[in-house]
């Protein structure tokens, strides 16, 4: 959103001084000054015209660039949870997200399908897992059919093991629709108590797992890590 610039050359055309001896020197100076004044006036008029022809919004934006100091980038938010899911389960993942946010007040959250487009999947996965307090694995029958989903849950588990503050942050969940049978659940996930949406104890499980104290601890570590990386980058 640059500011429009006049293409008019602000400098007057060069004159051939001393070639005509029949013209009085003071007259030549007078003509030169007159031409300079004229062309500078034309340049100012063209620049003003370009600004006047800009839409009102662009004029305000252009003035904002000159007059307003650069605003700080919007601070990123540390999420409560991210839901990793199969591509076919996007709608189910959205339903679970709305359930946790609206019925239990656990927000903000995100599903993996809503991560920024145009970036590598690995970068999105790293941002999703490390930019949230809990990683929910949506265990449906589609989950194990997708090689990428298998990679997601193995990576998430390794991350929770290697980072102390991420311990117990991976939450397998069997939703109401098309849940993955327990006998087909990978052994690595059987060792973790899964959220069972159809269970009567589901609300109690949710309250016990998603505690604000745990969230605040992870949020503080996340902020400190980001600040350290930024300081190293500036240095």
Structural notes for this entry:
- This is TIR domain-containing adapter molecule 2.
- The protein has 235 residues and is of the alpha/beta class.
- It has a domain at 79-231: Toll/interleukin-1 receptor homology (TIR) domain (Rossmann fold), CATH 3.40.50.10140.
- It contains 8 helices and 5 strands.
- The chain has helices at residues 25-53, 56-67, 90-104, 121-130, 147-162, 187-190, 202-209, 212-234, and strands at 79-84, 109-111, 132-138, 170-174, 195-196.
- It has a 5-stranded parallel beta sheet, with helices on both faces.
- The protein starts with 24 loop residues before the first helix and ends with a helix.
- The relative contact order is 0.10.
- Residues 1-54 and 60-73 have low confidence and may be disordered.
Total beta strand runs: 5
Give the class-level CATH name of the domain at 79-231: Alpha Beta
Assigned CATH superfamily of the domain at 79-231: Toll/interleukin-1 receptor homology (TIR) domain
Specify the number of helices. 8
How does the helix and strand content classify structurally? Answer: alpha/beta
Biggest sheet: strands, sense, closure?
Answer: 5 strands, parallel
Distance between the termini: 30 Å
> Within the largest sheet, what's the order of strands?
2-1-3-4-5
Give unreliable regions as ranges. Answer: 1-54, 60-73
Helix coverage percent of residues? Answer: 40-55%
